């Protein structure tokens, strides 16, 4: 706020906090209600007569990126009419991650019962975790962790028939691309950071009563992962089966 004053910005809009209110030309009361993060700054726009609504976000994959992703996936055998399911086991905190062995069990079950191609994704730092999931699976899986740029990864997500991910940026990317999505939440609140988009294409699995408090922003407090541990392979598989039945044409 001080930088805005020094830059001689004539209209300075911000929330009415004690440290900054004297630097603002338009002071917006802080909402007493917890808002979704995508909606939390809309009151600043409304202060000058604007309007906004946090309903969805969009992401555009360029045709060359889509084609590059198609070539990459086909090089790993994805195609031939079989659905592609992306599993994304990473997250920035360990207690936001569903157990690798559960991702593996889910991948095996989806491969055996729905004949899907399982693609396990992640960034360069996720390679060890992704390999752990792949090693625990009895069925073959395709590992793409650290093998794409962010834009190339977006192209791969655009090809997926289903994305299953922890609370991390990938699930928002999938929602922005209107891909069928299963979002796994434990210590964080889907009411605050949940995916936005077509509700028919999004399933959020969350057991808030299993965590001491939600959101829990102190991951260093022991190894308590009960929020994620409460999510069973059976319930994620049931949601995945529903999504695959609903959005994958069984005749293709």
Describe the structure.
- This protein is α/β, with parallel strands linked by helices and 252 residues long.
- It contains 10 helices and 8 strands.
- It has helices at 2-6, 42-46, 63-75, 100-114, 127-136, 150-159, 169-176, 190-193, 226-229, 233-247; strands at 13-15, 26-28, 84-88, 117-120, 142-143, 162-166, 181-185, 202-206.
- The strands form 2 sheets. It has a 6-stranded parallel sheet with strand order 5-4-3-6-7-8, sandwiched between helices. The protein has a two-stranded parallel ribbon with strand order 1-2.
- Helix 8 links the parallel strand 7 (181-185) and strand 8.
- Helix 4 crosses helix 5.
- The N and C termini lie far apart (56 Å).
Key structural traits:
alpha/beta; 10 helices; 8 strands; 13% strand
* Pattern of helices and strands: HEEHHEHEHEHEHEHEHH
Question: How big is the Rg?
Answer: 21 Å
Strand content: 5-15%
Structural class: alpha/beta
Give the termini separation: 56 Å
Unreliable residue stretches: none
Shape: globular
The number of E-state strands comes to 8
Helix content: 25-40%
Average of the residue pLDDT scores: 91
How many distinct helices? 10
What kind of sheet is the major sheet? Answer: 6 strands, parallel
Largest sheet, order of strands side by side?
A: 5-4-3-6-7-8
List the helices and strands and how they pair.
Blueprint: H1 2-6, E1 13-15, E2 26-28, H2 42-46, H3 63-75, E3 84-88, H4 100-114, E4 117-120, H5 127-136, E5 142-143, H6 150-159, E6 162-166, H7 169-176, E7 181-185, H8 190-193, E8 202-206, H9 226-229, H10 233-247
Parallel strand pairs: 1-2, 3-4, 3-6, 4-5, 6-7, 7-8
